[in-house]
User: Fold this.
Amino acid sequence: MEPPALERLRAKASQLPTAPGVYLYRDAAGRVIYVGKAKNLRARVRSYFSDDRLADAKTGSLLAEAQELEFILVDNEKEALALENNLIKESKPRFNILLRDDKTYPCLLYTSPSPRDS
Assistant:
């Protein structure tokens, strides 16, 4: 039998919209412990509850600690990416290890003279 919190989170995940957005897992104290993005919130968050993912050390630990699941809808995947980045920088969740170093997504500008400029 599953712990009540995991059962509640699984039920909530199955009710999420299929729209793009950002999801947040919170611990018992209400602290954000993980922020993620998705082009389909329901499919992405439900994937956390597969047996393989629950057996994974990081995902298993995350879901053992998580007590609440929240989401924020956005218009498209690019907005989700930007919002996820901002929320991670703001709340510094312990399970988001890749974006906690205050770096931002790289932006490159390529300039080259056109063939007519030669």
The beta strands are 21-26, 32-38, 68-73. Confidence is low (pLDDT under 50) at residues 99-103. Residues 51 and 60 are 10 Å apart (CA to CA).
